[in-house]
Amino acid sequence: MTATATTDLAAKLREHLFGHILPFWCGPALDHEQGGWMAWLSNDLKPDRTQPKGLIVNTRILWTFSAAHRVKHEAIYHDMADRALDWVMNKFWDAKHGGAFWQLNDRGNVIDDHKKIYGQAFYLYALAEYHQAFNSKPALDRAKELFELVERHGHDAKNGGYFEVLKRDWSDAGSEARLSDKDFNAKKSMNTNLHVMEAFANLYRVWKEPRVAARLRELVRAFLDKIIDARTQHFEAFFDEKWKVLSDGYTFGHDIEGAWLLCEAAELLDDKALLHEVEATAVRMAEVTLAEGIALDGALYYEGKGGKIIDPGKEWWPQAEAMVGFVNAWQLSRDEKFLAAARRVWDFADRKLVDHVNGEWFWRINEAGQVDPKLPKVSEWKGPYHVSRACLETMRRLG
User: Global pTM?
Assistant: First the structure.
């Protein structure tokens, strides 16, 4: 790709973010009856008010509008960030035990009070971003409070890393330690530890607390030494308390997302040797993702096992993360194939996943090349974060 082509891609993503994605979340996705955002919308924007309002999507909305405002200082993004902050700070927060509830109902009442560390991580991530955007002491104070709770209750002081799920009072959840219906009932996961690392990186930007740096380093080493399969360069997914692997598949989206997030974390630690090790790892992982996970149409498949594709679906979030991950690999290696791969992923997404009629992206393109009609446009797991971040990161790196 020429310099003109990279500038053109950055410009397209800027227009897509500010002209397509954010207007959807400032408009059709708003809940004008109960406040906040709709819990669930079908592809044609029909609501289902029986669905839960989830911690994940609401914290990701808060992150998105805070990050958008840092790039484009428009009042509406500040208004949307404040709207999200209200729900995150007041409705999702557990005033009795501290930490964030997992799910609320349509009216904002608690229906799942578990303390899932994955959710606490996104709470931290979003508050740190809001503080960066608006210099909010209350947001930073809450982030510091939550860091202390996660450290006290969620960190494995003996083996390193973070546990999956705790009860409302932060006690052991026992057999209830499953993040979602799709996940193993395991003590630890790649996914939770990946997003704790991401959250701590954002927190460390605004709070140079040595303990945050120590945990960030611990997590980077956990990925390098325990989570990445040195033979295949894929992330293992689920583990017991001592990091024994309990699963045998891998998701290409997490591999390529984790590759660039590891670089982001290592850059903050001011350790040249560690950064060099991480960057070499990130390029290798991008090489494997490109060799094994890309379809003929340029899209990223969902899941593999033993070198074979076991889920050929093309979901929205892996495409978004692939754009950033491949651009990151190009920045590190200057190998043009990575930049070309990023452009092909975007072309696929724009052609097949972007809903040019009702806004946002569809969830999944199935094996037949069609939109999966069963999966919603908005849900507790489907929000603006992956695509918005991909646009912002790619704009920054190419622009």
Answer: 0.97
